[in-house]
């Protein structure tokens, strides 16, 4: 499998990269874990590639005030292993941990994953729930796009010609997070993705955020379920009807890996189980995470 | 385009087309045939090599991207004609059927031995998710990796599990 030929550039700073991308002939390559397969299949055949791999400024993980800044070229495995992220946003590390396999995580980047916007990309629901923002640069300007506006649909984002995704900004969420990825094999792309963030204050659920992925629309927040449960006792039954209603309106991906109706059921079940697990943990608070068996159910503070 | 890298401790250099995949660079230009091509779609892990110490799939990287890096392939494991700990453990545990996945599995084991003091069976399974064995000899492969840990680190490497 040989891709068609291309010119190759490896700039050492962002400005150089932006200059190379300005004429519209070139395409950026980050970890290559999505782009290289597409090129091998000749689904895409860029005339020229600008390798972002040696631009140090895109590799930083830093905390700026109450915001975590993750550079576009930070790899999935670096997110899994970062001490800073473990403390600031463990739910992001959990999300990265269930991407593909170790080899893919060693090359693939958060910026590449967002720019590629595979509907089943793990980061999408988590970053939506965290109310993250994406920093986008062009030769002339730098703009900040809320996650809610960044993904337009499958493989479609707000990025314009000549722009680069520079970093992801994640505000601190002082609570816990759970991610569930449902897939046939663990390393496969998800059939269903759910991220739940929550705080429990005196037995009451606070600032609940539920986001769903693997949808044909980009990730979606289940606002009605959130509202129904916010501030109340942890009673999953109370939300079941609303959950049903809201899930019925979702437009999941519909393909050979799973039809839309099947995926709706998967999402319904994942959310229901999450809420039930949370309710079970109510009696011994602080132990909530122990109510969850297996990998997908682990919590992060 | 010029590509210069260190592979198994040796400096190598060649002029290649940018579209040449690292795995073909290793096999066809450098003539190191130990690294296998299984799927060429980034799934099977037969082409796994260490790039700057980390396992990657060499069919998912262009050779030009590896310029200036340090690569370890399965040929880099043995020393002075003697099998390495990983290789001996695979032989002794019958962890090879057709052998197609073996180079990738061995390179992965080298990485795991360097990175972790010990791993449970469950953790080993997790770490080799990206390495398919089409003969499905996973039980022996996991036995071999556990055994490699035992040999390299003393008896500490073993943990219970299925
Ligand atoms: C076997 C396998 C399993 C996988 N499983 C999963 C999974 O379970 N979950 C999951 O989420 N993903 C999965 N992936 C995809 C993986 O996460 C990729 O790493 C990711 O989708 C793309 O990131 P990349 O850095 O490799 O980007 P690349 O492949 O280099 O680029 C992808 C696209 O984004 C563009 N781009 C890259 N960086 C930028 C930037 N900074 N600014 C603007 N545009 C940019 C490129 O031009 C290209 O169009 C899997 C991949 C493989 C091969
Ligand atoms: S040949 Fe590279 S992953 Fe299969
Ligand atoms: S031994 Fe045949 S593929 Fe693993």
From TrEMBL, chain A:
Keywords: FAD, Flavoprotein, Oxidoreductase. The keyword Cytoplasm does not apply. The keyword Oxidoreductase applies. It comes from the Archaea. GO terms for molecular function: FAD binding; oxidoreductase activity. Residues 1-175 form the FAD-binding PCMH-type domain. InterPro entries: CO_DH_flav_C, CO_DH_flav_C_dom_sf, Diverse_Substr_Oxidored, FAD-bd_PCMH, FAD-bd_PCMH-like_sf, FAD-bd_PCMH_sub1, FAD-bd_PCMH_sub2, Mopterin_DH_FAD-bd. It holds the Pfam family FAD_binding_5. This is Carbon monoxide dehydrogenase. It comes from Sulfodiicoccus acidiphilus.
From TrEMBL, chain B:
It holds the Pfam family Fer2_2. CDD domains: fer2. Residues 1-77 form the 2Fe-2S ferredoxin-type domain. The keyword Acyltransferase does not apply. Gene3D superfamilies: 3.10.20.30, [2Fe-2S]-binding domain (1.10.150.120). The keyword Metal-binding applies. Keywords: 2Fe-2S, Iron, Iron-sulfur, Metal-binding, Oxidoreductase. InterPro entries: 2Fe-2S-bd, 2Fe-2S-bd_dom_sf, 2Fe-2S_ferredoxin-like_sf, 2Fe-2S_ferredoxin-type, 2Fe2S_fd_BS, Beta-grasp_dom_sf, Diverse_Oxidoreductases. SUPFAM superfamilies: 2Fe-2S ferredoxin-like, CO dehydrogenase ISP C-domain like. Signal peptide: none annotated. GO terms for molecular function: 2 iron, 2 sulfur cluster binding; metal ion binding; oxidoreductase activity. This is (2Fe-2S)-binding protein.
């Amino acid at each position: 499998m040989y891709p068609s030929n291309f010119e190759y550039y490896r700039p050492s700073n962002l400005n150089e990269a932006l200059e190379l991308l300005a004429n519209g002939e070139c395409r950026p390559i980050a970890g290559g874990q999505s782009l290289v397969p597409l090129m091998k299949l000749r689904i895409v055949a860029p005339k020229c590639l600008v390798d972002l791999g040696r631009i140090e400024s895109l590799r930083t993980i830093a905390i700026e005030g109450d915001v975590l800044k993750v550079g576009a070229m930070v790899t999935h495995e670096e997110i899994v292993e970062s001490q800073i992220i473990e403390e600031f946003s463990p739910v992001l590390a959990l999300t990265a941990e269930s991407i593909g396999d170790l080899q893919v995580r060693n090359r693939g980047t958060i910026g590449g994953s967002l720019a590629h916007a595979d509907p089943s990309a793990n980061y999408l629901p988590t970053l939506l729930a965290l109310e993250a923002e994406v920093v986008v640069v062009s030769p002339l300007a730098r703009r900040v796009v809320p996650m809610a506006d960044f993904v337009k649909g499958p493989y479609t984002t707000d990025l314009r010609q000549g722009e680069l995704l520079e970093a992801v900004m994640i505000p601190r969420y002082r609570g816990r997070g759970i991610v569930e990825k449902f897939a046939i094999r663990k390393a496969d792309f998800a059939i269903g993705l759910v991220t739940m963030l929550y705080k429990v204050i005196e037995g009451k659920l606070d600032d609940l955020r539920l986001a769903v992925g693997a949808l044909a629309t980009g990730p979606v927040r289940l606002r009605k379920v959130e509202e129904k449960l916010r501030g109340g006792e942890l009673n999953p039954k109370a939300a079941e009807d609303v959950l049903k209603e809201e899930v019925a309106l979702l437009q999941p991906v519909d393909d050979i890996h799973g039809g839309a109706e099947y995926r709706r059921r998967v999402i319904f079940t994942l959310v229901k189980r999450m809420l039930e697990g949370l309710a079970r943990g109510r009696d011994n608070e602080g132990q909530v995470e122990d109510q969850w068996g297996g990998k997908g159910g682990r919590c992060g503070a | 385009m010029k590509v210069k890298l260190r592979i198994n401790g040796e400096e190598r250099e060649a002029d290649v087309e940018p579209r040449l995949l690292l795995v073909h660079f290793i096999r066809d230009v450098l003539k190191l045939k130990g690294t296998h091509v299984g799927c060429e779609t980034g799934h099977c892990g037969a082409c796994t090599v260490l790039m700057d110490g980390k396992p990657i799939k060499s069919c998912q990287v262009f050779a030009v991207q590896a310029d200036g890096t340090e690569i370890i392939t399965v040929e880099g494991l043995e020393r002075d004609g003697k099998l390495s700990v990983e290789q001996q453990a695979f032989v002794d545990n019958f962890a090879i059927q057709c052998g197609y996945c073996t180079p990738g599995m061995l390179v992965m084991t080298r990485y795991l031995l360097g990175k972790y003091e010990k791993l449970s069976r469950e953790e080993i399974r997790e770490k080799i998710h990206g390495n398919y064995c089409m003969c499905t000899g996973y039980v022996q492969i996991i036995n071999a990796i556990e055994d490699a840990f035992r040999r390299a680190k003393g008896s500490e490497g073993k943990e219970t599990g299925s």
